[in-house]
């Protein structure tokens, strides 16, 4: 049930909260001192996972395809850490009064690295490519479901039509999944795009070798950096290499021995060690979208009773378990979505409290008052059993250890938690039928509309359509607020609506928030200017390395 | 003329029959392997299209397109026969996940695996022959090396790999941590992969050597004034090789399996990681392609081993 992305992290709660806001820049520029950016050189970065199925972010089901193609692809707009949209390949845009049509004015003089000029037809070709059934898009197309079509109204103006008002469009457009590829390259067969992607970005892809690495060289003619970037003109680095090192300890060793300049996913247990090394730094970024949460099945089994759900949430000390297991690297979650998501409701923090005695009373009230020989609660002779669809094979960041600790804690208040997912195949048959009591996963997306993925009636999984509403919650109010939020591009109004949704679903205990997914980036102090994109992936346009 | 020709033809026929039987059984082995792999993957619960889509939300049109593109709507028997037919024409099909033909997916990875297997195999043979020849029948050296071999057989190659990396790459900086660039990146993975092989092979060789060294002909050779090392190399080793050659069959399967772990630890490209990913993702065509290649290799190795027996032991040639 988990996405293909791995995002471990590590840092004390304190540092994490302060750093998340100011990002890497402060720390990095302090280290850089007076010596400004140096042109040239190669930066080698190691990641733990690759989009082995397909590199093209329009098609790929792997969200890490965004990290791999971002250096080569620009987007129409960019998104900053505060959720504000900035011009990039589009210099300005307007939204029609009925909120169904977006009109973009495009930047002049932009060229793709294969020499093709960027124009309105290129934008249409890209959006049409994403939604075309032949593309079999498994991620990007899902973000613009109401897309009706694009209309080229001039060489540099394009209108994008939707079937209904759709406010998350711009933030989706800012992700690498909507990176603008050369229309000439898009004419190739889909399979060829899975190997090589051509865009207008600051780097040009040389070669992607599966299970090994992807290499890039600088695009010398680049002169259209997004607003808010650290500099303009071509990138500083001559070359960029992203290596795939799946083994945690090996990736860490490659960093500490200076064989690579930076790594993704420092194991939480090693964060202290890396920080203590004067040659290295660790920076963090909380990923936007759904936290790593547990979702109870609200339609059948013991969790259909709200009191039982509340008892499970309040009778287990989630926050302490998370802090101890991850050495403070991950913030315990309070809402279904992360603090870096636009529309996050901060007032939820500290609202639920660990209270096993109250949990016991709730269970008594719900009728689970008996006890059997092993100490589990019973009702009419049936044991209080929770069937958890936990996929061990897909577990990462010690989620399996975490699950076992939760299981042990649940036993103390009388729950018999059992892991029932079986193999991936078995689980994929079971999940759409709702044949489970509890499910766990995280769901990244740089928009509050994540809540519609997680709790909208339309995303309850069925045999015909996979969905993320694992709680199988169907609440008319929630659906109404989510739909209203789609209708307006007014950020304050959207935040208000999303706050209502968060309060309702936490009030109903339709979700047990666990921890906030945080990207933990380890880097040599000689590497500077590694930035972040909306999905909390590192970017390398402003990056440079000190020459020895 | 005819009187001479007839027996010659008969001899040839007599020689050809075992060869034909051999060829027949080889084909059966290959067919069996492919069939078992196909059945195994289809009999496990869950269907392929769910797996192809995974946790993504796709529209019903995209789903229908995927089903049609991969022919998943056809009956299993038809899918099986179509596959067999294509394999006979040398076409291994198209991968579900990798967006490329199976043959090119395997082709892209096989070189790096073969490099690794050959280098660790060579290393293992050289080291174990040396160790066995030098320690057989020598009390102290034997005791020390037996101990080392026991450790070598017992440690998991995953752990050995990490240990080698920690010392020689992260610590001393002598070799790169990740594989695939130049010969220096081949050293540590080859050593890690060779450790259990050396440990087993040298034990078997030494055992054989020690038995042989007690034979009367060794005494004869010594009495002719041959040096100890000469006796061991010229006479005893050849006898000790027979059981070791038999082990080579096991070795091939070990190297294939070990590749999965070693390639992951050293971030190397290769068949092992390709197979692992294909099995996890239920990428049927790739799994079956790898099974086919592996069983082909097995068949070829076994034929080569039979020939090697003849080369090592002249007594078998007349039979």
TrEMBL record, chain A:
Signal sequence extent: 1-20
Subcellular location: Cell membrane
Family annotation (InterPro entries): Peptide/Ni-bd (IPR030678), SBP_5 (IPR039424), SBP_5_CS (IPR023765), SBP_5_dom (IPR000914)
Domain Solute-binding protein family intervals: 85-451
Gene3D superfamilies listed in its UniProt record: Dipeptide-binding Protein, Domain 3 (3.10.105.10), Periplasmic binding protein-like II (3.40.190.10)
Membrane topology listed for this record: Lipid-anchor
Keywords assigned: Signal, Transport
One Gene Ontology term, aspect cellular component: periplasmic space
An example Gene Ontology biological process: peptide transport
One MF term in the entry's GO annotations: peptide transmembrane transporter activity
Statement: the UniProt record of this protein carries the keyword Signal: yes
Principal place of residence: membrane
SUPFAM superfamilies noted in UniProt: Periplasmic binding protein-like II
Coiled-coil regions, chain positions: none
Stated family: Belongs to the bacterial solute-binding protein 5 family.
PANTHER family hit by this protein: OLIGOPEPTIDE-BINDING PROTEIN APPA, PERIPLASMIC BINDING COMPONENT OF ABC TRANSPORTER
Protein name: ABC transporter substrate-binding protein
Originating organism: Microbispora oryzae
Taxonomic classification: Bacteria, Bacillati, Actinomycetota, Actinomycetes, Streptosporangiales
TrEMBL record, chain B:
Database matches in PROSITE patterns: ABC_TM1 (PS50928)
GO terms under cellular component: plasma membrane
Membrane topology reported for the UniProt record: Multi-pass membrane protein
Source species of the chain: Microbispora oryzae
Family: Belongs to the binding-protein-dependent transport system permease family.
Molecular function terms from GO: dipeptide transmembrane transporter activity
Entries under SUPFAM superfamilies matching the protein: MetI-like
Ranges that cross the membrane: 20-41, 116-136, 148-174, 241-266, 286-312
Protein known as: ABC transporter permease
Taxonomy of the source species: Bacteria, Bacillati, Actinomycetota, Actinomycetes, Streptosporangiales
UniProt keyword list: Cell membrane, Membrane, Transmembrane, Transmembrane helix, Transport
All copies of domain ABC transmembrane type-1, residue ranges: 110-309
CDD domains on file: TM_PBP2
Subcellular location(s) per record: Cell membrane
